[in-house]
Write a structure and sequence with these properties.
Layout: E1 2-5, H1 16-30, E2 34-37, H2 45-48, E3 53-57, H3 66-77, E4 81-85, H4 96-102, E5 105-108, E6 115-122, E7 137-142, E8 145-147, E9 154-160, E10 174-178
Parallel strand pairs: 1-2, 1-3, 3-4
Antiparallel strand pairs: 5-8, 6-7, 6-9, 9-10
Length: 182
């Protein structure tokens, strides 16, 4: 079962509702329950124990208090899963544990406007999430430059900065990754 968490304390992405609906539809298609909330009070042991995975969908800013952070930390340490989508990297800058969990922090948008076409290198064509993609994969999206990219992440997709202007991460510009953590 999945909890989709969408609390924002900064920029609110218009795509939050579309993202929630897409994950709900995936749950229906593949047979797993999905709950959605922007209420941080869900981050307590009794509530989190109902879920296998927590998805931070377009969260921004400082969204959990100290007690909620501790409960989320315990959830992950007990084997719970985490998925961070888009601005999940623009969340909890003052919480080092979260920075390690998410794997990188948002630094800036490459350009203004910040939605444009770019080429993506599929680095792992065997991974469940990317095996259906061709490399290069051409996509129009709102791209991010990252800071503090953790060396322990395993990139699945890499943004090719030679296909657009304004990138600051160079040849190692992961946009999708995974890792075992805590």
């Amino acid at each position: 079962s999945v909890l989709v968490f969408t609390k924002t304390e900064g920029f609110v992405h218009e795509s939050i509702d579309a993202g929630k609906n897409a994950i709900i539809e995936m749950g229906k298609k593949y047979g797993f329950p999905v709950d959605t909330t922007s209420d941080a009070s869900f981050f307590k042991e009794k509530t989190l124990s109902k879920y296998n995975v927590v998805i931070f969908l377009n969260t921004t800013g400082d969204v959990l208090n100290d007690a909620q952070q501790l409960e989320f930390n315990r959830f992950i340490q007990a084997g719970g899963g985490f998925v961070g989508i888009h601005s999940a990297t623009d969340t909890e800058y003052d919480w080092p544990w979260y920075g390690d969990l998410v794997g990188a922090y948002f630094e800036s948008h490459p350009n203004d406007p910040n939605v444009f076409e770019a080429s993506i290198q599929v680095l792992d064509q065997e991974h469940t999430s990317s095996r259906h993609l061709r490399s290069p994969w051409i996509r129009t999206d709102e791209w991010y430059n990252f800071k503090e990219i953790r060396p322990h992440i395993t990139p699945i997709l890499n943004l090719d900065e030679s296909t657009y202007e304004g990138g600051t991460n160079g040849e190692r510009h992961p946009i999708a990754w995974y890792h075992e953590f805590d």
